Amino acid sequence: MAARERLLVIGGDAAGMSAASQARRRRGPDELEILVVERGHYASYSACGIPYFVGGVVEDLGKLIARTPAEFRDLGIDLRLRTEAVEIDVDGGRVRVRAEDGGERWEVYDDLMIATGAVPSRPRLPGADAAGVHGVQILDDGVAIRRAVEDGKPRRAVVVGGGYIGLEMAEAMVMRGLEVSLVDIADQPMQTLDPDMGAIVADAIRGIGVRLYLGEPVAGFDTSPDGHVTAVRTESRTLPADLVVFGLGVKPASGLAREAGVAVGPTGGIVTDRRMRTPTERVWAAGDCVETRHLVSGAPVAIALGTHANKQGRVAGVNLGGGYATFPGVVGTAVSKICTVEVARTGLNEREAAAAGFATLSVVVESTTRAGYHPGATAMKTKLIAERRSGRLLGAQIVGEENAAKRVDGLAIALWNGMTVEEMTGLDLGYAPPFAPVWDPVLIAARKTADAVEQDMRSRS
Amino acid sequence: MAARERLLVIGGDAAGMSAASQARRRRGPDELEILVVERGHYASYSACGIPYFVGGVVEDLGKLIARTPAEFRDLGIDLRLRTEAVEIDVDGGRVRVRAEDGGERWEVYDDLMIATGAVPSRPRLPGADAAGVHGVQILDDGVAIRRAVEDGKPRRAVVVGGGYIGLEMAEAMVMRGLEVSLVDIADQPMQTLDPDMGAIVADAIRGIGVRLYLGEPVAGFDTSPDGHVTAVRTESRTLPADLVVFGLGVKPASGLAREAGVAVGPTGGIVTDRRMRTPTERVWAAGDCVETRHLVSGAPVAIALGTHANKQGRVAGVNLGGGYATFPGVVGTAVSKICTVEVARTGLNEREAAAAGFATLSVVVESTTRAGYHPGATAMKTKLIAERRSGRLLGAQIVGEENAAKRVDGLAIALWNGMTVEEMTGLDLGYAPPFAPVWDPVLIAARKTADAVEQDMRSRS
């Protein structure tokens, strides 16, 4: 019998715990020891649920936690919270960890899984670290913000940055009765959408009472003598703030890996192959800290999203357990909801497509979610972006109400398979009056985009 | 200049009017005369909307009508209602039509478009044509049933046949306050689903108060001396009925074509190529009266559905107008809703797959429509059917609540592209807590089916 090996996992959320669980399924405790170190108070939770926890939509913190440390212990996984990995020594096959009391020790490994997640971007400005200023990444952040909101003191909140998290947090704080402003350096919120679609989101945000200041870079933060934030300053105004939340996106938390000599790619994410192996022997990585391949552009991307983290963690765990699994890449699908307005995107937007070297054509169609005569039918806009000449679908965006956003799945699968918009016009999609008009919005959009591709070709011939 | 040609269209609903409109777009009235004859009182309406009109969900009949005869006239399309085609003479290039007053005349054509739709199946039993017994196909049927319901006399309705239309009509009549029974010769309603999924639909139907009598063939109909239906008899019981509705499915209305020597295939549908041309010169056909290719089984199928009829009609019209368009076939996607229960299917069910010569493996997974902790998350069941060994997806079925059914679109697109369940496990689907659990039901189902395929292979090696 082979000697018992040791798997050390850094990071106890989606990717780390998925990897640990999968490895355990395939290799019992006699064969594989599994140690997970997690710097926060919580592990195995839904980070995407944080805005709903802050807003009170999800009352109980426990509901966000998939498995407790005790449950992992029962599986033979030693999960240590409040324990931070501070150095990786790949030559020595060991990691220096710091416990809550500050004590440090080296933990050895046969295989190392890096699942350190991401860190919220923060402007390098005085006051950006003041009390009352929060990033949103780990569940501890959510707990801190909810505590601040529930203590009843804050009246005015400023969200800096209008990405998904920023918008979801803005809505959550509106639900809590705060006066909420949102500042973004860009001319539109949700930069992952094209400006025409982003403008609809901006209207929705204003519609729930959020004051939107677009095209305004943050210039600084005012603080009180006791070090608490009191205002956010832009070049045009000073916004009083009892609470500030960053929604500027996140960056891969790859510093530890980089310092250890583990390859980090151009996106700042750790480099892995399709089996989630880094180029460093017996070092694996998965989740928000890695970069992956965008299957439309072919370029590496770092996209922090629970669904990728879970899949990648699972893939790493299967491989660590002696099986074979791969993570092929992403097509950039994302969905979100601001009150009743649903937003979805997949593939490349116009800017991204241009950056990737594609010449594109775009079409936006207005349609309804159900047959026009069916009560409850609401408006939705579908935008398709196709490559000139080939007509290959490159990206799609949807903004609408009830039931609009999840329709992006079909578009993501069409993208995944490299379909052209002309081919898509024949697709056999579900039709009944409560679900779609007889010409599904996706079919109308495909038809119009295919027509645009054809016209474009004629005008150039 | 070429002489003006004449397009004659038989049937003024989805396929016929789409063809006429498309042909007109490409060829003006100076070039092409277009005559459409329609036997009913209405044209260009949503037949799929009939149950909602009967149930009162859609109040106004006009809402079901996309374009009036006057609007078609303005487009230069001569649409004649209450005018029935009674004979096609392909050698003479003419069609004998009968006007409302019984007068007949021959109308010549250069191109003929047959869009005669479908006829509801009726049991060949005495009383099946009695007053108060209705099929559901053209809008006239819907108007007659709603009139019968609204005159307040019927108290007890019996639906014979538990297909989509039967179930939707049962719900509509429950909404109208009638006591509704549903009789089906099969052991489950909705034969397009496998028995395990159909059983859930049966429960939903019972849940809204419909009495379900399954596995009971109808033996006959009792009628009053004045010829009105009074009861439906099965082998086991007599169900008093003031109103009877058939939901036994429909058959292609291909009799006129067959009599004229236009080829009719094994399904009873008119045979066409991908451009919607029949083998008879200058005779085209589209909609519920034709058969098309099932892209999974490769076999011809006749599926009466507005979405196919519209697409096929458009394709025929583009080609009639001098353009090039094709209808590639279908994958058998359908969605429906019984109160809050949504039902969807695509591809082949187990019975159909076996008939097509596939050895299959199936997996049913229970999941939720949103993240489990998100309020409003409801249960949904997803069934995938894959080919043994290859793991190619062959079919899928979904039963669930809010937002469950339209997820079938993604599965239909996966099928369309011939994906295997293993490939599907990597799909990048939209994830956020209000829209899906972090492991989307489709991904879980794909994973479990892929595992089943692998296990099956091992157990046979």
From TrEMBL, chains A, B:
Keyword Oxidoreductase: yes
Stated name of the protein: Flavoprotein oxidoreductase
GO MF, one example: oxidoreductase activity
Family matches, as PANTHER family: NAD(P)H SULFUR OXIDOREDUCTASE (COA-DEPENDENT), PYRIDINE NUCLEOTIDE-DISULFIDE OXIDOREDUCTASE DOMAIN-CONTAINING
InterPro entries to which the protein is assigned, alphabetical: FAD-bd_OxRdtase, FAD/NAD-bd_sf, FAD/NAD-binding_dom, FAD/NAD-linked_Rdtase_dimer_sf, Pyr_nucl-diS_OxRdtase_dimer
Family as reported in the entry's similarity comment: Belongs to the class-III pyridine nucleotide-disulfide oxidoreductase family.
Cofactor entry: FAD
Organism lineage string: Bacteria, Bacillati, Actinomycetota, Actinomycetes, Streptosporangiales
UniProt keyword annotation of Flavoprotein present: yes
Origin species: Actinomadura darangshiensis
Alphabetical keyword list: FAD, Flavoprotein, Oxidoreductase, Redox-active center
